[in-house]
Specification:
The chain has about 240 residues and is an alpha/beta fold. It has 9 helices and 12 strands. InterPro entries: Cell_div_FtsQ/DivIB_C, FtsQ, FtsQ_C_sf, POTRA, POTRA_FtsQ_type.
Protein backbone atom coordinates (compact mmCIF):
# COMPACT_ATOMS: atom_id res chain seq x y z
CA UNK A 1 0.00 0.00 0.00
CA UNK A 2 2.84 2.35 0.90
CA UNK A 3 4.62 1.47 -2.34
CA UNK A 4 1.52 2.29 -4.38
CA UNK A 5 1.07 5.63 -2.59
CA UNK A 6 4.71 6.52 -3.22
CA UNK A 7 4.37 5.72 -6.91
CA UNK A 8 1.22 7.83 -7.16
CA UNK A 9 3.07 10.69 -5.47
CA UNK A 10 5.97 10.46 -7.91
CA UNK A 11 3.60 10.40 -10.88
CA UNK A 12 1.84 13.52 -9.56
CA UNK A 13 5.18 15.28 -9.03
CA UNK A 14 6.38 14.41 -12.52
CA UNK A 15 3.08 15.25 -14.23
CA UNK A 16 1.70 18.22 -12.34
CA UNK A 17 3.67 19.14 -9.25
CA UNK A 18 6.93 20.01 -11.00
CA UNK A 19 5.17 22.41 -13.33
CA UNK A 20 3.67 24.21 -10.35
CA UNK A 21 6.95 24.70 -8.48
CA UNK A 22 7.16 28.50 -8.17
CA UNK A 23 10.13 30.65 -9.10
CA UNK A 24 11.33 32.08 -5.80
CA UNK A 25 14.50 33.83 -6.95
CA UNK A 26 15.63 35.65 -10.08
CA UNK A 27 19.34 36.36 -9.75
CA UNK A 28 21.09 38.85 -12.02
CA UNK A 29 24.85 38.96 -12.33
CA UNK A 30 26.92 41.69 -13.96
CA UNK A 31 28.70 45.00 -13.46
CA UNK A 32 26.29 47.79 -14.32
CA UNK A 33 27.19 51.43 -14.83
CA UNK A 34 24.24 52.50 -16.96
CA UNK A 35 21.73 49.64 -16.69
CA UNK A 36 19.43 49.83 -13.66
CA UNK A 37 18.03 46.93 -11.67
CA UNK A 38 14.57 48.52 -11.98
CA UNK A 39 14.75 48.26 -15.78
CA UNK A 40 15.61 44.58 -15.53
CA UNK A 41 12.87 43.95 -12.97
CA UNK A 42 10.23 45.66 -15.13
CA UNK A 43 11.23 43.60 -18.18
CA UNK A 44 11.14 40.32 -16.24
CA UNK A 45 8.05 40.85 -14.08
CA UNK A 46 5.43 39.35 -16.45
CA UNK A 47 7.69 36.43 -17.41
CA UNK A 48 8.60 34.94 -14.02
CA UNK A 49 5.18 34.54 -12.41
CA UNK A 50 4.73 31.07 -13.92
CA UNK A 51 6.10 27.80 -12.58
CA UNK A 52 9.77 26.86 -12.60
CA UNK A 53 9.45 24.70 -15.72
CA UNK A 54 6.77 26.80 -17.42
CA UNK A 55 8.98 29.89 -17.55
CA UNK A 56 9.95 30.67 -21.14
CA UNK A 57 13.74 31.01 -21.18
CA UNK A 58 13.76 32.35 -24.73
CA UNK A 59 11.22 35.05 -23.88
CA UNK A 60 13.24 36.06 -20.81
CA UNK A 61 16.41 36.19 -22.91
CA UNK A 62 14.74 38.37 -25.54
CA UNK A 63 13.15 40.74 -23.00
CA UNK A 64 16.49 41.42 -21.32
CA UNK A 65 18.39 41.62 -24.62
CA UNK A 66 16.09 44.40 -25.83
CA UNK A 67 17.07 46.72 -22.98
CA UNK A 68 19.12 49.67 -24.23
CA UNK A 69 22.33 48.94 -22.35
CA UNK A 70 22.43 45.15 -22.62
CA UNK A 71 25.22 43.68 -24.73
CA UNK A 72 24.99 39.93 -24.07
CA UNK A 73 22.71 37.74 -21.92
CA UNK A 74 22.70 34.15 -20.70
CA UNK A 75 19.68 32.66 -18.92
CA UNK A 76 19.36 29.31 -17.13
CA UNK A 77 17.18 27.50 -14.61
CA UNK A 78 18.77 26.54 -11.28
CA UNK A 79 16.98 23.76 -9.42
CA UNK A 80 14.78 23.89 -7.52
CA UNK A 81 13.31 27.39 -7.86
CA UNK A 82 15.70 30.00 -9.29
CA UNK A 83 16.47 31.68 -12.61
CA UNK A 84 20.03 32.92 -13.13
CA UNK A 85 20.67 35.74 -15.60
CA UNK A 86 24.16 36.91 -16.53
CA UNK A 87 24.35 40.27 -18.30
CA UNK A 88 27.22 42.10 -19.93
CA UNK A 89 26.61 45.81 -20.32
CA UNK A 90 27.39 47.83 -23.44
CA UNK A 91 30.23 50.32 -23.10
CA UNK A 92 29.91 53.62 -24.99
CA UNK A 93 32.95 54.48 -27.10
CA UNK A 94 31.98 57.68 -28.94
CA UNK A 95 28.93 59.81 -29.60
CA UNK A 96 27.20 59.16 -32.92
CA UNK A 97 25.97 62.58 -33.93
CA UNK A 98 24.27 64.63 -31.23
CA UNK A 99 21.84 62.21 -29.58
CA UNK A 100 23.23 58.69 -29.93
CA UNK A 101 26.27 56.67 -28.92
CA UNK A 102 28.30 53.87 -30.46
CA UNK A 103 29.89 51.00 -28.56
CA UNK A 104 33.42 49.81 -29.31
CA UNK A 105 31.85 47.11 -31.52
CA UNK A 106 29.87 49.62 -33.57
CA UNK A 107 26.44 49.10 -31.99
CA UNK A 108 24.22 52.17 -31.82
CA UNK A 109 22.96 53.11 -28.35
CA UNK A 110 20.18 55.64 -27.78
CA UNK A 111 20.42 56.74 -24.13
CA UNK A 112 17.66 58.56 -22.28
CA UNK A 113 20.08 61.32 -21.31
CA UNK A 114 22.97 62.18 -23.63
CA UNK A 115 24.33 64.92 -21.35
CA UNK A 116 26.40 62.54 -19.21
CA UNK A 117 28.41 61.56 -22.30
CA UNK A 118 29.46 65.05 -23.41
CA UNK A 119 33.13 64.26 -22.79
CA UNK A 120 33.17 61.50 -25.43
CA UNK A 121 34.43 62.35 -28.94
CA UNK A 122 31.80 62.92 -31.63
CA UNK A 123 31.72 60.65 -34.68
CA UNK A 124 29.62 61.63 -37.68
CA UNK A 125 29.21 59.68 -40.89
CA UNK A 126 26.76 58.22 -43.40
CA UNK A 127 23.79 56.40 -41.85
CA UNK A 128 24.14 52.61 -41.67
CA UNK A 129 27.91 53.00 -42.01
CA UNK A 130 28.76 53.45 -38.35
CA UNK A 131 30.91 50.31 -38.11
CA UNK A 132 33.13 51.27 -41.05
CA UNK A 133 33.28 54.90 -39.91
CA UNK A 134 34.24 53.82 -36.39
CA UNK A 135 37.08 51.61 -37.64
CA UNK A 136 38.47 54.51 -39.67
CA UNK A 137 38.24 56.78 -36.63
CA UNK A 138 40.16 54.27 -34.50
CA UNK A 139 43.00 54.22 -37.03
CA UNK A 140 43.13 58.02 -37.13
CA UNK A 141 43.06 58.15 -33.33
CA UNK A 142 46.07 55.85 -33.13
CA UNK A 143 48.06 58.09 -35.47
CA UNK A 144 47.14 61.21 -33.47
CA UNK A 145 47.93 59.57 -30.14
CA UNK A 146 51.55 59.09 -31.24
CA UNK A 147 51.78 62.90 -31.28
CA UNK A 148 49.82 63.30 -28.02
CA UNK A 149 46.90 64.80 -29.94
CA UNK A 150 43.34 64.16 -28.78
CA UNK A 151 40.38 64.01 -31.11
CA UNK A 152 37.18 65.89 -30.30
CA UNK A 153 35.28 65.19 -33.54
CA UNK A 154 35.72 63.01 -36.59
CA UNK A 155 33.45 63.50 -39.60
CA UNK A 156 33.02 61.61 -42.85
CA UNK A 157 30.54 63.30 -45.16
CA UNK A 158 28.35 61.69 -47.82
CA UNK A 159 31.19 62.00 -50.34
CA UNK A 160 33.53 60.20 -47.88
CA UNK A 161 35.70 63.25 -47.28
CA UNK A 162 37.31 63.20 -43.82
CA UNK A 163 37.61 66.01 -41.28
CA UNK A 164 39.22 65.96 -37.84
CA UNK A 165 38.73 68.42 -35.02
CA UNK A 166 41.12 68.20 -32.08
CA UNK A 167 40.38 69.10 -28.48
CA UNK A 168 42.59 72.17 -29.01
CA UNK A 169 40.17 73.40 -31.70
CA UNK A 170 42.50 72.69 -34.63
CA UNK A 171 40.64 71.39 -37.70
CA UNK A 172 42.34 69.06 -40.18
CA UNK A 173 40.80 68.59 -43.64
CA UNK A 174 41.81 65.33 -45.32
CA UNK A 175 39.63 65.13 -48.41
CA UNK A 176 38.59 61.89 -50.11
CA UNK A 177 41.86 60.32 -51.26
CA UNK A 178 44.88 58.86 -49.44
CA UNK A 179 43.73 60.43 -46.19
CA UNK A 180 45.94 58.43 -43.82
CA UNK A 181 49.00 58.99 -46.00
CA UNK A 182 48.36 62.75 -45.97
CA UNK A 183 47.80 62.75 -42.22
CA UNK A 184 51.05 60.89 -41.58
CA UNK A 185 52.92 63.33 -43.82
CA UNK A 186 51.53 66.27 -41.84
CA UNK A 187 52.33 64.68 -38.48
CA UNK A 188 55.94 64.16 -39.54
CA UNK A 189 56.33 67.93 -39.98
CA UNK A 190 55.27 68.74 -36.41
CA UNK A 191 58.75 68.27 -34.95
CA UNK A 192 60.06 70.81 -37.45
CA UNK A 193 57.26 73.29 -36.81
CA UNK A 194 57.39 73.05 -33.04
CA UNK A 195 54.53 73.08 -30.55
CA UNK A 196 54.27 76.88 -30.50
CA UNK A 197 53.53 77.05 -34.22
CA UNK A 198 51.04 74.17 -34.08
CA UNK A 199 49.10 75.92 -31.33
CA UNK A 200 48.67 78.95 -33.61
CA UNK A 201 47.01 76.91 -36.35
CA UNK A 202 43.24 77.14 -36.87
CA UNK A 203 42.80 74.93 -39.96
CA UNK A 204 45.19 72.60 -41.75
CA UNK A 205 44.09 71.67 -45.27
CA UNK A 206 45.74 68.45 -46.44
CA UNK A 207 43.77 68.17 -49.68
CA UNK A 208 46.88 68.81 -51.77
CA UNK A 209 49.01 66.14 -53.47
CA UNK A 210 52.38 67.37 -52.21
CA UNK A 211 51.80 69.66 -49.25
CA UNK A 212 49.22 71.47 -47.17
CA UNK A 213 47.80 74.91 -46.47
CA UNK A 214 47.41 76.50 -43.05
CA UNK A 215 44.89 79.05 -41.79
CA UNK A 216 46.15 80.76 -38.66
CA UNK A 217 44.25 81.89 -35.62
CA UNK A 218 43.35 85.60 -35.57
CA UNK A 219 46.17 87.78 -34.30
CA UNK A 220 48.90 85.30 -35.19
CA UNK A 221 52.18 86.99 -36.14
CA UNK A 222 53.70 86.33 -39.53
CA UNK A 223 55.97 83.30 -39.36
CA UNK A 224 59.57 83.27 -40.52
CA UNK A 225 59.51 79.91 -42.31
CA UNK A 226 63.27 79.91 -42.96
CA UNK A 227 63.91 80.24 -39.26
CA UNK A 228 61.32 77.58 -38.49
CA UNK A 229 62.82 75.15 -40.99
CA UNK A 230 66.37 75.76 -39.69
CA UNK A 231 66.28 76.98 -36.08
CA UNK A 232 70.11 76.80 -35.87
CA UNK A 233 70.61 79.04 -38.90
CA UNK A 234 71.55 82.19 -36.99
CA UNK A 235 73.89 80.36 -34.63
CA UNK A 236 75.66 78.47 -37.39
CA UNK A 237 76.20 81.69 -39.33
Amino acid sequence: MMTVSLLIGLVWLAGYGVKRIPIKYVRTEGVFQYLSKDEIKTALQPLVTTGFFDADMQAIHQAVSELTWVDTVTVKRVWPHAIDIKIREKKPYVRWGEQRLISARGEIITPKNIDQFKTLPILQGPEQQQVKTLEIMKGVNTALADQSMKMAEFTINDRWAWKIKLTTGLEILLGRNEQLKKLQRFLKTLDVLGQEQVERMAIVDLRYPNGYAVSWKPGTEEIDWKKTANPQHEIDG
